[in-house]
């Protein structure tokens, strides 16, 4: 809800006093008549609430003058300018997450248009991943598997070579004995 208001402070009664914050918690006001002015929906002004606010990025404008009094999310300032670098949202008060490219953080809703930096996930890239990149895990697995297969293959060749040497050696000794 948006509006203009008046705050009354009352210290005249003996049983009330304002704390150091200069705000009085027990101020009462009896009104005989109260008039509330405003348009039933934002973005318009005028007597019949039929004139659009002059700035298209303005959420609320003054009912009589049309002067912007609050920007739409993604905009800030008196002229409702787009949020500055790495900020977004209502009055640009939110900080963008861990986007791969912070210039690609959407100024209205904070979504990372180019994805998250390594180690983060989610639409806003604000959630820290508690797992290592699966590609790195798979690469380590395949390297280990390759080394294991290479060792087994090398052992197989060595054993085959030894068997062949022994067989050829025993065949020579049998030939020599038969001659």
TrEMBL record:
<keyword id="KW-0245">EGF-like domain</keyword>
<keyword id="KW-0472">Membrane</keyword>
<feature type="transmembrane region" description="Helical">
    <location>
        <begin position="139"/>
        <end position="165"/>
    </location>
</feature>
<dbReference type="GO" id="GO:0005044">
    <property type="term" value="F:scavenger receptor activity"/>
</dbReference>
<protein>
    <submittedName>
        <fullName>Platelet endothelial aggregation receptor 1-like</fullName>
    </submittedName>
</protein>
<dbReference type="InterPro" id="IPR002049">
    <property type="entry name" value="LE_dom"/>
</dbReference>
<keyword id="KW-0812">Transmembrane</keyword>
<dbReference type="InterPro" id="IPR042635">
    <property type="entry name" value="MEGF10/SREC1/2-like"/>
</dbReference>
<feature type="domain" description="Laminin EGF-like">
    <location>
        <begin position="68"/>
        <end position="99"/>
    </location>
</feature>
<keyword id="KW-1133">Transmembrane helix</keyword>
């Amino acid at each position: 809800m948006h509006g203009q208001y008046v705050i009354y402070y009352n210290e005249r009664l003996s049983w009330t006093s304002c704390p150091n914050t200069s705000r009085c918690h027990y101020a009462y006001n009896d009104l005989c008549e109260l008039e509330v002015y405003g348009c039933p929906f934002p973005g318009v002004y005028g007597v019949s609430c039929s004139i659009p606010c002059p700035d298209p990025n303005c959420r609320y404008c003054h009912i009589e003058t049309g002067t912007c009094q609050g920007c739409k999310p993604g905009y800030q300032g008196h002229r409702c300018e787009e949020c500055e670098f790495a900020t977004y949202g209502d009055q640009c008060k939110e900080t963008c997450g861990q986007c791969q490219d912070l210039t690609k953080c959407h100024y209205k809703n904070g979504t990372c248009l180019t994805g998250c930096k390594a180690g983060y996930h989610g639409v806003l890239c604000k959630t820290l991943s508690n797992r290592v990149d699966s590609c790195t895990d798979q690469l380590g697995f395949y390297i280990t598997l390759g080394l294991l297969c290479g060792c087994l293959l090398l052992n197989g060749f060595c054993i085959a070579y030894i068997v062949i040497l022994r067989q050829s050696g025993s065949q020579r000794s049998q030939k020599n004995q038969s001659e």
